[in-house]
Structures are given as structure tokens and as C-alpha cells.
Amino acid sequence: MRDERLRPETVVVSAGRPPHVPGAPFSEPVTFASAFVAGGDPEYARYGNPTWTAFEDALGALEGGECVSFASGMAAVSAVAALVPHGGAVVVPRHAYQHTLALLDGGAADGRFEVRRVDIADVDAVEAAMPGAAMVWIESPTNPALEVADVERLAASARAAGALSVVDSTFATPLLQRPLGQGADVVVHSVTKLIAGHSDIVLGAVVADDPDLAARIRHHRGLHGAIPGPMESFLALRGLRTLSVRLERAATNARDLAARLENVPGVVEVRDPGFGTVLAIVLRDAATADRAVDRVRLWIPATSLGGVESTLERRRRWATEAPTIPEGLIRLSVGIEHIDDLADDLLGALAGDDVD
């Protein structure tokens, strides 16, 4: 658990370390092992690994709960969705990570549970959908619409309604938003993104402050086998160490870029949640947006985000993206490059006659 006397910028560096004893390494080494001598903890590699534990200790300390890591963000999402009882209802954002929505819609199609879609930024609408629900799924900011939810109020309302509240806080990270401290029951992260931060691993995590709930999630991981690799865990923890400085630089770049994009010819709308590293711009149509994406040289056209490099993507190029997302919306994941270079490249790509 987190030492509340330490600030988050210190926790990202200090948590999950081996004891400070003479001759000890600064970082938990990578433990490649499929079996352990009986009588200890863990007894088998599907149930634990010292390298996982170091990463889980650090992220749990940041979020203020008990962390369970997974092989991917979707493995983490699946484990949380499994908490919904058969026949239960899940309140979900109409805009969210599309594979989260696909997983929940698949469960609804199979008759496992009911899905109630809402505008997560409309508190009254979300609360109106809560009666009888088993879970309220909050994503804030949403992907890719960048709506911001009132996490504290929605978590309190969910608790009053007898529902678990879950927050996908991938875009915010625990340095900008700590949902457990705002009353949420569970936090989900795609560690692949900002937490690891270098576009080189796939990993997920769930954090809960109720030990019984965390135990249920860990039990699911053991049974379903979606365990993280030790090398991925090591790299995720190494990435976490620099989250504070990476996030500070990228978020500053994002706010600066959002300001520069206002009143640019051809940009119909700039979507900026006001924090974090992800923005979106809306151009007039798909063809215009595709041409802009094709013109950039420094920005990387890619579907992933949260790394040190800046990426962009027209989200409706995916047939499974929500139809309420504009065809011309380009999601921008802002990295740590020099802001003038990022702006010059993007504004130059937007400056062609067929864009404006």
C-alpha cells in the first residue's frame, strides 16, 4: 500500500523495490521460472512471480489498493467483467475502448448479462440507468471521444444502487486520477499504454481496495491463465519509474498543441479533456482526415498510444468503432518530442488546399 507521506512522483520511483540492504540490487531482477520449491509463495508459476509482485506493489501503491497484473489490458477487462453475475446489468459508456464494448456486447448477445449504454458525461442519465444494475463501467476520459466523467459522484451513486463501480483510467494514469480514492471499487489499466510508456510490451492491470474483491480477481487470473510474463512485468515497472516526467512533458505538449489547433482552417472541432496526453480533432469528412494522416512525417499513424512517440489515427477507419464518432475524427496521442516539431508537422499536414 502507498505511504501517504510520499507524493506520487516519489512513489513511482521508490515503490516495488527490494529491501535496502548491502549488496541488494536497486530493482527486482527478472525471475524466469515455471516451478518453485514447495512450501513457499508462490508454489507454482501461474499463481505468482517475484517480478510480477514488484510491479503490482508499485502500481498498487500509486492507486491505493491491491494490484493484479494480466497478460493484456483486455485480459484485465475480461476478469472484471466476470464479476457480473449471470443475468446482471452493466451500465457502460456509449463511447469507450471498442474491444471493451465488444466484450460486453458479446456477453449480452449470449444472454449472460444486459448492457445499458449511456453518455458517461451526463451524470443524470448514468444515474437513471443504475437501478438494478450489477456494475457501472466508467471510462474517463473516453476513447476516442474524450468525454470526462464525474467519477466521484458516479461511484457514490453506484454504491447507493448496490452496483460495483469500475473505472478504466488508462488515459489518466494514477498520477492524474485515483478512482479508488474517489470511491470507485475497481480500477483497470492497459499498462501497454502510458504506464509502460515505450510501445514495447502488452500488459494489463486491475486494482481494488477490497481484499476480497482483489482475491476474486486473482483467482480468475489463476484459473483462466492470463498471466503476465516476467520480462513484460520488468519492463512495465521500468517504464513506470519515468511516468511522472514523461507525463508532465507530454501533457504540456498536448495543452500547447490543442491551443495551436484552435481556429486552424479545416479543423471543425478540437477535443481536449484538459488533462492527459490524448486529444482529438474533427475534420470535415473521412477523406480529408485520411489525407492529413497520410501527410505527416514525424507523427506515426498507429492504433496504439501512450508511448514517448506521438501517434495519430482516424478512428472510424475501424468498422467496429461507434457510429456516433465523427468520420473525420483523428485521435492524437501526444508524445515527448519538441512541441514546435510536432506542431509544424501536424499543421503542415493540415495546410493543403484539399484539407482546408
TrEMBL record:
EC number: 4.4.1.2
Keyword rRNA-binding: no
Gene3D superfamilies: Aspartate Aminotransferase, domain 1, Type I PLP-dependent aspartate aminotransferase-like (Major domain)
Cofactor requirements of the protein: pyridoxal 5'-phosphate
SUPFAM superfamilies per the UniProt record, alphabetical: PLP-dependent transferases
Gene source species: Agrococcus pavilionensis RW1
Enzyme class per UniProt: lyase
Statement: the UniProt record of this protein carries the keyword NADP: no
Classification via Pfam families: Cys_Met_Meta_PP (PF01053)
GO MF term list: cystathionine gamma-lyase activity; homocysteine desulfhydrase activity; methionine gamma-lyase activity; pyridoxal phosphate binding
Keywords attached to this entry: Pyridoxal phosphate
Source taxon at top rank: Bacteria
GO biological process, one term: cysteine biosynthetic process via cystathionine
Catalysed reactions, as listed in the record: L-methionine + H2O = methanethiol + 2-oxobutanoate + NH4(+); L-homocysteine + H2O = 2-oxobutanoate + hydrogen sulfide + NH4(+) + H(+)
Entry protein name: homocysteine desulfhydrase
Sites of N6-(pyridoxal phosphate)lysine modification: 193
Family of the protein in this entry: Belongs to the trans-sulfuration enzymes family.
GO CC entries: cytoplasm
Organismal lineage: Bacteria, Bacillati, Actinomycetota, Actinomycetes, Micrococcales
